[in-house]
Structure formats: C-alpha cells, structure tokens
C-alpha cells in the first residue's frame, strides 16, 4: 500500500482503500465523535409553554373546526394559528391537545419550534416515540441522514393516529429549510406562529387568533380572580390592557394572589390610571387589525412586582430582570442554584423570589425531563426594555457566570446531556442583550464551549448552528479579529467537516488559520489547533501532502509549547500514523522507544479518549504496513474496549470492528470476518440509512468476503 488517498469520506473520515484483493482497510478519524446512546427531549407527550387556561374564552368556533380535524379517520391537513405574541395561540393549541388525547383517542406530540435545535431535538424525540432505532436517531442528530425524513417515515408508520403541535414557529424558514412541515394521512399538524404570510404556509389552513372581545376578556379576569370585582369592572380593566390574553393572565394572577391586603378590580384600575404606556413591539407579528393592539401597559407586570415587594419579596423583581437576559425557552432550574446569583439575588432568597413569580403567573414551572421554568417572550422583552442601561451590564454579567458554571470547561465525549442542550437559545439571547465588551467576550467563550460539547456528543448540526450564530452576533461587538470570534468560526468549520461539507469547512478553517498566524504567531495554541483541524478537510479534498505538512507542524508545535506528554500532542502524533507516507510511517513505528498506545496509557490512562484513539491508529498503521499478524490482537482489543466504553453503535466501535474484520480476512479467518462485517453493515444501515455510501461499501465488502468463502475448496 502507498498510503495515498484515492477516495473521499465524511463524518468520521472513513475512506476505503484496497491493495489487490488481499485486504481492505477502513481509514478513520478519531476526533470529536459522539457515542451511540440516544438522549433526547422526552417531554413531547406533554404540552409546554405555560399553564392551560381555566376556561378557553371566545374560541368556540375555532375549537369546533380544530376538533373536527382530529376526529377519527381525519388527517392529512396542516392548520396554522397566527397572531401577535400573547394573544392565546398556545392556549388554543393546548386545549386541542387535551381534547385529542383524552376524547379523540389520538397520541399527542408537542414540539417547541422556536429555533432549529429545539425543533430538531423535539421532532427526533417524536421519531424515537414512534419506534426509530437508536442508530437511526444518532445519525439524524449528527447530520448523517435527513432528520425530517426519519421523523415523517416513523409518523407515517405509526399504528395510532396522532396530533403534532409545532409551537412558537415564529421563524417559519426553519420549517422550510429542513422540510419539517408536511401533511400525512395518519395525523393532523397544528402550528402556532406570529408570521401570517401565506408564502410560509402553502397548502395549510390559516386561522387568525386575535385579542378577545370585551365581554370574553372581562370573563377571563373573573375566571382568575372571581371575588375581586364585577363583570363591568373587569371589562374596564380589560379595555385598558388591550384585551390581550397574556396581559389579562398577568392581571388575574396578581389579583388572585393578594392575601394580606387583597385588591379589588377598582383599586387595580386606579393604579393603572396615569401610568406611562410603553410601546412593546411584538417582533414579527403582522398588523392584523386596524388599531395596534401590540401596545401594552407594562404596569401589568410591574404592579405584580410592587405587590410582591410590599409583601417583603423585593427579590422577585431582581430575579425577573435576570430572567430577561435569557430566552423564552425552558430554562433549567439548576442554572439558578449557584452562588454566582448572589450579585443579583441572595441565594437563600432565590427560592422565595421564584415562588413569588410563579404565584403571580409571571413565569411557569414545566418538566422536560429536567425541571425548568418558562417565561413568555413578550413579558421578557417588556422587562428588558425597562431595565436601565447601567443595570444591564451587571445582569448580563451574572447571567454569563451562571451559564459558565454549568458548561464544562473541557467538554468530554459522552451521551447527550439534555440540560446542556436546553442552554443554546439562552446563551444566544444573552449575546444579543450584552453590550459591554468584556461580558460579550465571556459569554462567547461559554457559547464556544457549549458548541464543543454538542460536537463531542455527535450533535454536529447544533454545534455548527450555535457556533455560527454566536460568531454572527458577536463579530460586530468584538470585531472580526477577536480571538473568541475566530474560535467560534473555527468550531463552525470543524462541525461542517463532520457534516461532510468539506469545501465549506476548508474555506472557513483556512481563513481562520491565516488570521491566527498573522495575529498570534505560529506557536500560539489556537494556531496549532488550526494546523491540526485544517488537515482533515484537506485530506478529503485530495490535498494530502499539504494536510500532512500542517499536521506535522501542529505536532511539533504542540510538543514544543504544551509538552510531549500533553493530550493534544499525543493526539496529533496518533493522527500522523494515519497520514504519513508509508516509508515515513515505517520509520515512525519501528524507531519509537515505546509504542504510542503504551505511551498514551502511561500518561493519560488506558480508557482515555486519546489512548483509545491512538490504539486504533496504531493498529491501522500496522495494517497499512501489511503487518497483519502484529495487528490482529491490537485490532481485536481496541474494538472490544470501544464497545465497552462507548457502546455497540459508537462510530469508532464500528470503525474498529471494521478494521478487525479486514485483518481476520487477510489472515484467512473468513467465517468470523463475515460474521463481524455483517454486524457492522447492519448497524451502519440503521445509523446511516441504506443509501449512504458507508453502508453501501460495508455491504459490498461483506459480499466480497462471502464470495471468497464460497470459492474456498471444501475440506
């Protein structure tokens, strides 16, 4: 073998090479690859997005239409509820969800469609509920197969009829880009959105959800606070609140929770008199009526905070301002259980402050397999708009510290952490709000680490989206040459490589390398990381010599700067075993005082990711050199250890088994080689799909081995 690359691969960088008909080996990369375990959102059988209304007022005609859409035997339709934020779209969806699951004998699925990561996670949880295999889910999550195709394949195969709710789809381009929105005879789809343009919803039936009529709005207040006043008094309050359901809910929550000195609706109205009307612009909603009902009286929530302060819970106001730094998606409660919160709310008082917000309906507890709170986007925007500029720095700084405390400094490879996946929209919201350069930089550092954590679970799509969006937000604030902005671009480039988009990956990583060399010099750790990272797409694009040169530069520089025993140095040395020309490889292997795997185990431990990777690389190097007898035991043991540490569907478990099967075949052990290759091919079909080139090649090699068995003379 010459070691030359005559094919392309993606994801784990696998390229199949052959020398005559003696053996075929699998070229691999053992960088940041996720494990086989699937861990997704498990809450899709329950609605999120706030409390269900006590009584759904003035939606009877709409509900009759929607209930007919989930009657037995009805399906193949998409319904879109559109209107401004806070108008009750989600409340209608929740009511239909309850009807469909309790009275119409349907399975209900509820997915947050506010951003790409939440939508993808939720929809893949739907696929898991409908029987998708673990390998299929991991491949879809990592971008190796179309996630939407898998989801709709499983929904099509569902034995039970279903209702799928896509809530908060205020960026409908997300649904279009991924092909997520489809009709299917097995069920009905309901979408809630602020965007009403017909171009976003082809073939869907649109229904406007507006503010409530005067009488219905008054009744909402009476439902929530039945002893606070008359229906006419409630109607007057409702008029002042624009008859927007969200504002009515906040007002009703306030009135119903006054214990020491209960307020009447008349008193509540007096406190609204003369207050400044602050225009709260509901971003993205179309103007659907002649007058602009999007202007709310922000005192709706301020009165609740004033009442809490009068009861001795002044901290609720501070906590709400802190929450305004985050997004409206579910926020894990563990984030608030940290001493760093003391700069805004004394930690012992955080519990009382949160209970005050919950009692006043200013936030809601939800469970998405981890305990969270969720606050309405309109409310968060209103609160943030009212925070004095000088306070924003302190709040965003504290929010950054809270996120920093829960995102690993050095993310490890392992199963997907749902708690971490929930943080992505919150770090992006924080980056939007932060203005101080030091706070922006600190928050961006957290975002890059979170993207790296996604990458190391195999969630390359989320890693790329988070890193790319974070770079876009912060580049105007920090400048294009800021070290962390470049790190965000580099992380996006590494994710693009794993997604098989080699040209895009090379372009980004080459640009980042040029900037890092110019700004930091060739021996800076970031520059060395660029040398290492750029090698990967270069190898797949046919620029092997340039890639090896950069990889050698990274190896030498890391040994000089970080030390010979540093994990990154050892990782670079392992990768060289995969790419060095054969003559240089023989010198490297034979001239070493100690085999590289032993050296890694000595310094890092036997099960460290770099140690396992070095063992696979070393076995691969022996195969490249044609030393099959020497390689067989190494290949067998590393395959076993990958399965022990990471499970049977882990990408490198399959790579190691593939290598071991080829070594067995080269040594004439055809029957066990066939058995193992059949297992690898089947698992790749499950994880990558039957049309993927890796799957096709695995089955092709399996057939070649079976043919050799058939050709062998009988004993």
What does this entry look like structurally?
- The chain is of the alpha/beta class and 715 residues long.
- Among the domains are: 15-30 and 589-711, Tetratricopeptide repeat domain (Serine Threonine Protein Phosphatase 5, Tetratricopeptide repeat); 60-208, Rossmann fold (3-Layer(aba) Sandwich); 214-310, no CATH class.
- It is 57% helix and 7% strand.
- The strands form 3 sheets. The chain has a 5-stranded parallel β-sheet. Strands 8-10-9 form a 3-stranded antiparallel β-sheet, with no helix packed on it. A two-stranded antiparallel sheet has the order 1-2.
- This is Tetratricopeptide repeat protein.
Chart the SSEs and their pairings.
Layout: E1 15-19, E2 23-27, H1 60-69, E3 77-82, H2 89-102, E4 107-112, H3 116-129, H4 134-142, H5 147-156, E5 162-167, H6 173-178, E6 187-193, E7 205-208, H7 214-224, H8 231-240, H9 245-256, H10 265-272, H11 299-310, H12 315-323, E8 331-332, H13 347-359, E9 364-367, E10 371-374, H14 377-385, H15 389-406, H16 418-421, H17 424-433, H18 437-456, H19 460-478, H20 483-498, H21 502-520, H22 525-540, H23 544-561, H24 567-579, H25 582-591, H26 596-604, H27 609-624, H28 628-646, H29 651-666, H30 670-688, H31 693-711
Parallel strand pairs: 3-6, 3-7, 4-5, 5-6
Antiparallel strand pairs: 1-2, 8-10, 9-10
Overall residue-averaged pLDDT value: 85
Structural class: alpha/beta
CATH homologous superfamily name of the domain at 60-208?
P-loop containing nucleotide triphosphate hydrolases
Number of strands: 10
- Spans of at least 5 consecutive residues whose pLDDT stays below 50 are 1-42, 274-297
Radius of gyration: 29 Å
N-to-C CA distance: 32 Å
Strand content: 5-15%
CATH class term of the domain at 60-208: Alpha Beta
Instruction: Summarize the main sheet.
Output: 5 strands, parallel
Helix content: 55-70%
Number of helices: 31
Label the CATH architecture of the domain at 60-208: 3-Layer(aba) Sandwich
Strand numbers in spatial order across the main sheet: 4-5-6-3-7
